[in-house]
Amino acid sequence: MFQAIVIENDEQGYRSTLTRLDDAQLPPASVSLDVLFSGLNYKDALAIENKAPVIRQFPMVPGIDFVGRVTSSRHPRWRPGDLAILTGYGVGESRWGGLAGKASADGDWLVALPETLTPADAMAIGTAGLTAMLCLMTLEKQGVTPQQGEVLVTGASGGVGSFAVWLLAKAGYRVIASTGRPNDSEYLLNTLGASSIIPRETLNQPAKPLAKEQWVAAIDTVGSHTLSNVLAGTARYGVVAACGMAQGLDLPASVAPFILRAVTLAGVDSVMCPMHSRQQAWERLASLCDSEHLRKMTTMIPLASAISHADDLLRGQVRGRLVVDCH
Ligand code: NDP
């Protein structure tokens, strides 16, 4: 038996409960694991609180990312005792996820925990850190270097945004952080390493086709008018990596930045990202992240309080990552 958060939706209504499951109830898969830590992400909170149609089938164990120890394997790459990370692939949405003591998974989806990271470090990074790294790698693939000029990050206080600021700064970039939380300015500048702050309001209103060239590249977690303004302010031959939609799914922009300044807009998706990019991203994360800093960005909670913390997360009362101890 093991503990799990289970979401059900039947004649008794939509409900999330902490319950005990039998090992035999785990969906069949090539690898079984003891979950060590799981992340509590915004998407998990939406699922737990029924605030968006995240869950595709019921009953569902939520949890879109976790790190665990392999207990049995029919997969050639994995042996009992191996430590592995799983993010994305619809886990916690259409397949049982990580907010549980045990999980089963397709071995093709697992990434080996890099040697220099602890299991808790891996979930302090989680989907947010992985997405931020994929954005940084996207900029680099397009030829962006620290010498070219400043890089903008929108939604800088958020999960992905704060990792993006920190990773860019660690990689030697000068970072402009756009935030709607002036109280977080000191954290963004002194702890995460941003060089300057701009208020969110300067970017979230309807955009002109082109604006003054202000940054050579950007990581946008916000979408909508913000992304339009980001594109309009990007320098000639600049690159924008877009991964989020905190302001909205729309993009009310013009083609002017593309046809007059040759700006590149590159999408980033961590859910179905190819395995070689995931492995590369985790290796880069392992080389840049240190446990001490990750601990400062993390609040550790027990599985038993994950449901109550989902509400705090949706009300914007959480800064940094919530890591759930599932041992
Ligand atoms: P968070 O909620 O932690 O952060 C989003 C940030 O965006 C907020 O902290 C805030 O930052 C800013 N923001 C919120 N609302 C608005 C608004 N109305 N207008 C302008 N800015 C706003 O979310 P995450 O960092 O976890 O995720 C960010 C986005 O990325 C989400 O849309 C998420 O769905 C997406 N995502 C995509 C992934 C992918 O694979 N493509 C993976 C993970 C997440 P501030 O207060 O600093 O302005």
From TrEMBL:
<dbReference type="GO" id="GO:0016491">
    <property type="term" value="F:oxidoreductase activity"/>
</dbReference>
<keyword id="KW-0560">Oxidoreductase</keyword>
<dbReference type="InterPro" id="IPR013154">
    <property type="entry name" value="ADH-like_N"/>
</dbReference>
<dbReference type="InterPro" id="IPR020843">
    <property type="entry name" value="ER"/>
</dbReference>
<dbReference type="Pfam" id="PF00107">
    <property type="entry name" value="ADH_zinc_N"/>
</dbReference>
<protein>
    <submittedName>
        <fullName>MDR family oxidoreductase</fullName>
        <ecNumber>1.-.-.-</ecNumber>
    </submittedName>
</protein>
<dbReference type="Pfam" id="PF08240">
    <property type="entry name" value="ADH_N"/>
</dbReference>
<dbReference type="InterPro" id="IPR014188">
    <property type="entry name" value="Acrylyl-CoA_reductase_AcuI"/>
</dbReference>
<dbReference type="InterPro" id="IPR051397">
    <property type="entry name" value="Zn-ADH-like_protein"/>
</dbReference>
<dbReference type="InterPro" id="IPR036291">
    <property type="entry name" value="NAD(P)-bd_dom_sf"/>
</dbReference>
<dbReference type="InterPro" id="IPR013149">
    <property type="entry name" value="ADH-like_C"/>
</dbReference>
<dbReference type="InterPro" id="IPR011032">
    <property type="entry name" value="GroES-like_sf"/>
</dbReference>
<feature type="domain" description="Enoyl reductase (ER)">
    <location>
        <begin position="13"/>
        <end position="324"/>
    </location>
</feature>
